[in-house]
Every structure is written in C-alpha cells, then in structure tokens.
Amino acid sequence: MDGKRAGYGHGLRAVLSSDVRFMWLEITGRCQLRCVHCYADSGPESGHGTMTAAVWKRVIGEAADAGVRMVQFIGGEPTLYPGPAHAHRSRAGAGP
Ligand code: SF4
Prior knowledge:
14% of the residues lie in helices and 10% in strands. It contains one helix and two strands. The protein is elongated and about 40 Å long.
C-alpha cells in the first residue's frame, strides 16, 4: 500500500495546524504482554496494522516538513514493529 492509496495523498501540511510540533504514532498493536487494562487491547496475537514502513516514513517526512519536531512511537510495544520507521526519528528532530 502506498501513501496515496492509504489516504495521505494530500500531505500532512494541509491538515496540521502550524503549531503542531509533536506527534504520537501508533505503529503496532502487537505487544509481548497482555495487560487486562490495556487501552489498545494489544497482545502477542495483535497485528502491526496496514501501514507499511514506507508509508510511515512518508508520514514522518511530511510531518517534519509541516513543522513536527518530535515523534513518539507507541503501540502496543513499538520496538516489536519490524519496519525501519525508528531510523527516521532524526528527521523530525527527536534527538539521537
Ligand atoms: S501496550 Fe502496554 S498496556 Fe497494552 S499490553 Fe502492552 S504493556 Fe500492557
């Protein structure tokens, strides 16, 4: 799935207000735990969703272009996501 088919063809700049500097990206529903209080109903059998790593990278790039300077990956357990989206954190100015 590419970004246009995923509904991101108009770019984030068009939908973000100019003072948005921080985003949470829920990159997976998978988690190694199965907490009964989980807000996301995450667990070992949950999937990573339909967003590919390429689409996440595009979203992060567009967010950076729109002024976002910090992205926090959430889930689920974001380190279980197999894609390289984490490698683009510096694009959004999120530090080392
Ligand atoms: S995402 Fe958090 S609350 Fe949910 S199952 Fe995993 S560790 Fe527990």
